[in-house]
């Protein structure tokens, strides 16, 4: 599957027909009264299923959705229905009464949320059954191509592809149609403290500010300068000048790195599968373990406590 070319290869072209029924079946069903006729031929394998049967995508890289845009899209759906099908996978579970059928979203979470706001009972879908890595890739590609992700969300998605599916930065770059440098720079944002990442996500500072802050290795100083940049509405150039001034006042004596501590750090990172940081010495200090989502935190807790 040529994922780097996007979702177009997975979503068939639309054809016209018409039919009306309350049961989930091939496209050609009007979603609600008053909307225009949208339908797709049977040969395109587009079906209408109940909205309540579709579960959100656990691999969705996008964390934030503009409420105003969702409301606007919902209003459009009330009039015209959902024009582009969702991409879902089919999940069958054996229950005492037989087989329970549900669907998991792969791509189209914004449309799914808007459909709920619009009160649609059924929505058009294309059913695919990719593996877990492909689900994440498809969700990521859709959002990257639509430019829906902020830099932190994009960085988390790239990091997850590398961590969970053992991809290199070059492999990720090929999958999403970006250069390796873009992927590398995005992932570096995750080295910044959470508060700074939050400011980037909220658009208070830019990725350009982040690159400047990464020059500084002290997390507390990174937080302080990020706050200053927000308060004083600093441009990237102004922040860069401030950082250069600070760096010029530092001692020219290079920091002595304890090789044994560095070995400990590498061993812990490899064991936990996540970045860690030491401060202090072997006699007394702090160990900081990074995590990037609730799921990641749960994984680390199980690893540290020996839970299965």
UniProtKB/TrEMBL annotation:
GO cellular component: chromosome
Example GO molecular function: pyridoxal phosphate binding
Entry keywords, A to Z: Chromosome partition, DNA-binding
Keyword Translocase: no
Domain of life: Bacteria
Biased composition (Polar residues): 12-23
Gene Ontology annotations of biological process type: chromosome segregation; positive regulation of sporulation resulting in formation of a cellular spore
Entry annotated with the keyword Heme: no
Region (Disordered): 1-26
Pfam family of the protein (one): ParB_N
Residues annotated as domain MOSC: 254-308
NCBIfam families from the UniProt entry: parB_part
Family the entry assigns: Belongs to the ParB family.
Record protein name field: ParB/RepB/Spo0J family partition protein
Source organism: Candidatus Sungiibacteriota bacterium
